[in-house]
Write a structure and sequence with these properties.
55 residues; mainly alpha; rod-shaped; 85% helix
Length: 55
């Protein structure tokens, strides 16, 4: 393999990894947004306090 093909192969790997990371981040953001919509009006501190007081 010549130097140009080695560099080209390395660049393909780097670009592919960046795209995969970006897709994972976008998926995580959309999941967080979906869960945030479902939890409106929910107060985590209040729920923890209620659970602790019931013990």
């Amino acid at each position: 393999m010549n130097t140009a093909s080695i560099v080209e192969k390395k660049l393909e790997i780097i670009v592919g990894a960046r795209l995969r990371d970006r897709e994972r981040i976008e998926h995580a953001i959309s999941t967080q947004d979906r869960l945030r919509k479902k939890s409106k009006g929910w107060n985590g501190a209040k729920e923890v306090r209620k659970w602790r007081d019931s013990r």
